[in-house]
Amino acid sequence: MASLMNRIKRLFRRNADRADNIGSKTKSAETTITEEQHQNPVAPVDPAEQSDQVQQRTTADTMASGTFTIQLRNDTNSSTVYGYITGLALDSGNRVFLLQADGKTPYYPANPSSTGSKLEKNCSIPLGSPGNTVTCTIPRLAGGRIWFSVGTPLTFLLNPGPALVEPSIFNPADPNHYTNFGFAEFTYNAAQVFANISYVDFVGLPISLDLTDTANNAQRVAGMTNYGPQTIANGLIAQTRRDGRRWSSLIVNDKAGNLLRILSPNSGITLNPDWFQTYWTDYVNQVYTRYSTNALTV
């Protein structure tokens, strides 16, 4: 059981640990979501690392100007893919920021009078057909996220503040619950860009990051392979059959039974505290019994 937990922990931490800090004087970076294998990657990649993804590339030599160019590439097999960019605008008093659908116009929401208010602007950036790239321009942002959804646009809401209500995997009543979505995280400040693929709370839609700096040095975080999420799901189902635990309950499907995402064990117990409540009880008792009568050397 311990080895299974370690494997699952590695699966959810692998990409977070590989997250590259993107240095200052950035020239180019790319983010991709894919449901087909990458085409024309910035750096050669082992075929086993290729994935069905949406790709994000940021192309800019403009750290001093306060703007940054991001290229969003659709490497899925769907023509209905949307991108979103959100964050806190560092040069505008940390105001809530969303990029509008044209990929250029900033949207700073006004303070709504009630919770769950709709956005007043269209912030769904259509990525077009497979292989298409959309160029976006953003200001300096903290706590930035680049979101992608396939098949259906995401719903973002506003609470008084204003505070952005983002898609949540923890709320089954969230309007995005049955939407296939994912995101990459980044901060772009006056010094440099930090970016990573976040596979801490869940895994699902594969996303890759590519960056080329002003010296033409390429960095790449390839993301999961196109079969990665299903492989994890199959492993969890098999483990449930072996030990009767709630591993398979971490799998989230859409209403048609298609795989959407897999929750981390920690996310699963956030929603259902009893799922693994006694998982370690027998092992802990064995350890306690052993070392209550035997010396423990550290």
Automatic annotation (TrEMBL):
Superkingdom to which the source organism belongs: Eukaryota
Every GH64 domain range: 65-298
Region (Disordered): 19-52
Classification via InterPro entries: Glyco_hydro_64 (IPR032477), Glyco_hydro_64_fam (IPR037398), Osmotin/thaumatin-like_sf (IPR037176)
Pfam families hit by this protein: Glyco_hydro_64
Gene3D superfamilies for this protein: Thaumatin
Annotated coiled-coil segments of the chain: none
Signal sequence, start to end: none
Start-end of Polar residues biased regions: 23-34
Residues spanning the membrane: none
Name under which the protein is recorded: GH64 domain-containing protein
Organism name: Hortaea werneckii (Black yeast)
